[in-house]
Specification:
The chain is an alpha+beta fold. The protein has 17 helices and twelve strands. The chain has a five-stranded mixed sheet with strand order 1-2-8-5-3. It has a three-stranded antiparallel sheet with strand order 4-12-9. A hairpin with a 5-residue loop joins strand 10 and strand 11. The longest helix is centred in the middle third of the chain and has 32 residues. It starts with 35 loop residues before the first helix and ends in an 18-residue tail after the last strand. The relative contact order is 0.16.
C-alpha cells in the first residue's frame, strides 16, 4: 500500500461546548485554570478523591479545556484497544508533544500509524537488539564502575538521567557519533524540558524557546546524517531506520526518520530514567528484595568482566518482576490523553466527538480490588499464577492495543542489564528516617533527586550473598 493513501486525515476538532458535557458528574474548578493546579500538586490524591466522589467516569477541566476522565481496566481497554477506532492519539498528545516531537509514532493514528509502526519494527528485531545490548552493556558497566570507585552518598536521579541519555546516544546513534554528542544531547535535554513547560509559546528566554532551538539543531543533524548512514550502514537504531522501508518498498522519508528518531530518543530516555530511578528507590527501601535480586544475579554465573547476553537476561525473572512492580507503583506515563473522533457511549454516558479523554494508569495500578494493599512493594504480584486471572488492561505502564510501546522489550532489556551490573557491584540504601517525595506528573521523579548511599560489593559467580554487605558466601 502506498503511503500517500494512508496519511492521517487533517481533522480539525472543536472541543464540545461545556453544557454538552454537564450530564457527566464532576467538578471543573476555577474559571480558566480549572483543576490544573490541584492535579500538578497531587495527581494521585486528586484523581482518587474525584473518583470516590464522582465515580470512575467524571468531568474535569485541565489546561484550559473540559475533559472526561475514564478510570479502571474496562476504560483502559475501551480507549487503548480501541477496536472501533474512536480515539485519536494524535489529537490527544498534540498539546504536549506536537510542537517539539511532531509525527512521532505515538502521534500517528490508525492506518498511518500501523504502516509506520511496521516499518519501524525492523529496528527492534533480534539482530539489532543484540547490537543495542552490546552498547548498553558496555556503557552501563563503565558507569557502574565509576560509581563503585567513588562510593558514598549521591543524588541518584540526575546520575541516572545522564546515564540513560548517554546510552540513548550510543545505542541509538552509534558509538562513533563523535564530538557532536554533547551538543546533540543538550538539544534533546532542552526539547524534553520544553515539552512539559507551563509556557507553551516560544517567547524569548523561555524553556519553550530553548526547546524549539534544540529541535532545529536535531533536525539539521539527522537530515545531514541520513544520506551518510544510508551509504555506509550500521547496527545502531538510526542506521536501521535509514534503511527501513514501507510495504511498497519505499524508504522512510527524511522527515519521517527525523520525527521518529526524535520521538524514540525522548521516550527511551525520559521514561527509563523515571522507571530505573523508581527501581533503585524500591530496592534501597526494601533491602530484603535487594538481597533476593542480588542472589539471582549471582546465580547467572557471569564474571564481573564478562558481557551480558540475552539468554542471561531471560534468566532474571525476579529482577523483571521487581521492575514491573516499580512501574505499577509509579508508572512512567501516569496519564494518557486521547480525543474522540466520533460520538460514542460508554457506561450509559453519551460522549460527543471532539471530547478530550484521559485514562489514568496511576489510578488503575492502585485500585485495591485489583492490587490488595496497593502501597506495598510486592514483586510477587507478577508471578504467572498471580497474573493469570487479572484483567489484561489492569497493568498498562506501556499503554496497550495498537499503541503499545514499540520499545517495550528494549526497556526490559536495558532494565535487567542495569540490574545485573548494579547489583553485582553495589548495594544501595537510604538514610535513616529519609522518605523521598515524588513528583508524579508528567513523569514520576523524586523532588530532591533521591539521596542514596552506595557501597561496593564483591559478587563472584557461583557465590551468593545473603546480605548486601559485600561479603560473598558459598
Amino acid at each position: 500500500m502506498s503511503m500517500q493513501h494512508v496519511a492521517s486525515p487533517a481533522i480539525s476538532f472543536t472541543p464540545p461546548k461545556r453544557n454538552s458535557l454537564t450530564h457527566i458528574p464532576g467538578d471543573e474548578g476555577w474559571p480558566i485554570i480549572g483543576k490544573t493546579l490541584e492535579v500538578l500538586a497531587d495527581p494521585k490524591g486528586h484523581i482518587e478523591k474525584h473518583a470516590a466522589k464522582y465515580g470512575l467516569i467524571h468531568r474535569t477541566h485541565l489546561f484550559g479545556e473540559t475533559s472526561i476522565v475514564f478510570l479502571g481496566p474496562e476504560a483502559n481497554e475501551l480507549v487503548l484497544f480501541d477496536q472501533a477506532k474512536l480515539f485519536s492519539s494524535t489529537h490527544g498528545w498534540a498539546i504536549v508533544l506536537g510542537r517539539l516531537f511532531p509525527r512521532g509514532l505515538m502521534l500517528l493514528d490508525f492506518d498511518e500509524h500501523r504502516l509506520h509502526r511496521r516499518a519501524l519494527s525492523v529496528a527492534f528485531k533480534s539482530g539489532p537488539m543484540k547490537s543495542y545490548l552490546a552498547q548498553l552493556d558496555a556503557g552501563i558497566a563503565a558507569r557502574v564502575a565509576q560509581w563503585k570507585a567513588r562510593p558514598g552518598p549521591m543524588l541518584f536521579y540526575p546520575a541516572m538521567k545522564q546515564l540513560t541519555l548517554d546510552l540513548a546516544a550510543t545505542s541509538f546513534l552509534g558509538a562513533d557519533i563523535g564530538s557532536e554528542v554533547d551538543e546533540i544531547t543538550r538539544a534533546f535535554i532542552d526539547m524534553i524540558a520544553a515539552s512539559v513547560a507551563p509556557i507553551r509559546k516560544p517567547l524569548p528566554g523561555t524553556q519553550m524557546a530553548r526547546g524549539v532551538k534544540g529541535r532545529k539543531r536535531i533536525v539539521a543533524y539527522f537530515s545531514e546524517q541520513i544520506p551518510i548512514r544510508r551509504g555506509r550502514g550500521g547496527e545502531d537504531l538510526f542506521s536501521q531506520l535509514c534503511h527501513a522501508t514501507h510495504e511498497d518498498g519505499a524508504l522512510l522519508s527524511t522527515q519521517d526518520i527525523v520525527d521518529h528518531m526524535s520521538f524514540l530518543m525522548m521516550a527511551a530516555h525520559d521514561t527509563l530514567t523515571s522507571s530505573l530511578t523508581s527501581f533503585i528507590a524500591a530496592l534501597a527501601a526494601h533491602p530484603q528484595w535487594q538481597d533476593r535480586l542480588r542472589n539471582e544475579v549471582a546465580g547467572l554465573g557471569i564474571a564481573p568482566d564478562q558481557p551480558t547476553t540475552l539468554d542471561k537476561l531471560e534468566a532474571m525473572p525476579l529482577c523483571e518482576m521487581a521492575f514491573k512492580e516499580t512501574m505499577r507503583m509509579k508508572p512512567p506515563v501516569p496519564s494518557m490523553p486521547r480525543r474522540a473522533v466520533r460520538d460514542f457511549s460508554f457506561k450509559g454516558y453519551a460522549i460527543p466527538a471532539g471530547t478530550l479523554i484521559g485514562i489514568n494508569p496511576l489510578f488503575t495500578h492502585h485500585m485495591p480490588d485489583i492490587w490488595p494493599d496497593p502501597e506495598t512493594f510486592d514483586p510477587m504480584r507478577f508471578t504467572d499464577e498471580a497474573q493469570r486471572n487479572r484483567h489484561r488492561f489492569a497493568y498498562v505502564p506501556f499503554g496497550g492495543g495498537a499503541h503499545m510501546c514499540l520499545g517495550l522489550h528494549f526497556a526490559y532489556m536495558q532494565a535487567k542489564c542495569f540490574a545485573r551490573h548494579f547489583l553485582q557491584n553495589l548495594s544501595v540504601s537510604l538514610e535513616d528516617g529519609y522518605k523521598p517525595e515524588w513528583q508524579m506528573w508528567p513523569i514520576p521523579k523524586p523532588r530532591d533527586g533521591l539521596r542514596v548511599t552506595l557501597k561496593p560489593v564483591c559478587l563472584d559467580p557461583g557465590r551468593h550473598s545473603n546480605r548486601a554487605t559485600g561479603i560473598a558466601i558459598r
